[in-house]
Amino acid sequence: MLKIENIEIKHLREVVRVGIEYYEDSRFNKDNDLPLDHDVIHDTAKACIVAANVLVRGVFDDEGKLHGFIQAAIIPFSWNKKLTCAVNLIYIDKCCKGKGYGEKLLENVKEWAKANNCYEVLTGDYAFDTEATGKWLERQGYKKLGNHYGIKV
Question: What is the DSSP code (8-state) at residue 128?
């Protein structure tokens, strides 16, 4: 049975493992062929986990193995003077796709954004690798806004 919970420092090793898999399989890596720096992934993941304005939620099995995650941050936009929640990463293992975990993670972000007085949740094309992901976001109620997808909360 899989469950969704906050990612904490105790999960850092699993986050780094999955982060490496995500990066190696990502469109960004394939397009840029940049070397993978494990220390950068570790330090970035750790900073996100402890930051107050960042939400990091994961999909875990009973043994504590991470099968997916979402990372979002609250940012102020000067053009509308409102808080926005930006989804920076979302990842679901292939074995878990189509089972509703991505939708539950997105719903967690919307609830968190609303509780933190955000006006909207935005994603960027940098956070997603395929056209299919864009269609999936549209099925969740997100609208295409240039290079982003967004939904009011």
Answer: -
Q: Residue 147's pLDDT is what? A: 80
Nearest to 69 by CA among 51, 55, 50: 55
pLDDT per position as a tens digit, 5-62? 998 888 888 888 887 777 776 655 566 666 677 787 788 888 888 888 899 999 999 9
**Burial grade of 66 (CB within 10 A; 0-12, 13-18, 19 or more):** buried
Residue 10 half-sphere exposure toward CB, CA atoms < 13 A? 5
How many other CB atoms sit within 10 Å of the CB of residue 112?
A: 18
Q: What is the pLDDT of residue 45?
A: 84
Q: Enumerate long-range contacts of 5-10, CB under 8 Å, 24 or more apart.
A: 5/57, 5/58, 5/60, 6/56, 6/57, 6/58, 7/49, 7/56, 7/57, 7/58, 7/66, 7/69, 8/49, 9/46, 9/49, 9/50
Gap between the Cα atoms of 63 and 66, Å rounded: 9
Residue 126 has pLDDT above 80, yes or no: no
